[in-house]
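Tokens as discussed.
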């Protein structure tokens, strides 16, 4: 649901008005907001009753937000400097470009042509690797910490063995029982 809201906001927000704001300011502000949201998500994972579920929710929020941040940057960059890309970008084109870059598919139908656009795309590629490697590791580490911090669930007590000697499952005999002398035919039982 969060992803749908984020994509809707991407299409509805008046990004055209941001063309006069320096791109570095937009990207740094957006990345700082993303970092704060990610830190809050890690805190929530550590406190969650179901930390793995909370981590999945965090990924479903942070990854689309990361991609939409760069899609917005490319859209605004193209509005401020129309020669930044191989052709004019609509919001859908910018989103498509960011996803093909993130997924490392890169069809080549849209390319960064200006030096500033190439620098931003390079930054996105490096941050993609960082987000995938470090970001996923941090979330999984938070899940592990949260699970370790929780006390073991109180369940039914383990059944108590009444068998006097442990059974060797592989051989099917009593492993710890002392060996009994064999009874010879015709001898009385001990």
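Sequence:
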């Amino acid at each position: 649901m969060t992803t749908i809201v984020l994509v809707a906001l991407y299409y509805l927000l008046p990004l055209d008005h941001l063309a006069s704001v320096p791109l570095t300011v937009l990207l740094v502000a957006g990345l700082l907001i993303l970092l704060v949201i990610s830190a809050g998500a890690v805190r929530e994972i550590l406190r969650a009753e179901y930390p793995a579920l909370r981590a999945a929710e965090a990924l479903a929020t942070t990854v689309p937000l990361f991609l939409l941040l760069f899609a917005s940057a490319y859209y605004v960059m193209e509005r401020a400097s129309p020669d930044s890309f191989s052709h004019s970008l609509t919001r859908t084109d910018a989103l498509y470009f960011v996803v093909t870059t993130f997924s490392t598919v890169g069809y080549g139908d849209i390319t960064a042509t200006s030096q500033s656009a190439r620098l931003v795309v390079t930054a996105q590629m490096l941050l993609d690797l960082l987000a995938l490697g470090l970001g996923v590791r941090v979330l999984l580490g938070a899940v592990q910490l949260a699970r370790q911090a929780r006390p073991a669930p109180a369940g039914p007590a383990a059944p108590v063995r009444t068998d006097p000697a442990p059974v060797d499952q592989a051989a099917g005999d009593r492993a710890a029982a002392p060996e009994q002398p064999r009874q010879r035919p015709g001898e009385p039982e001990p």
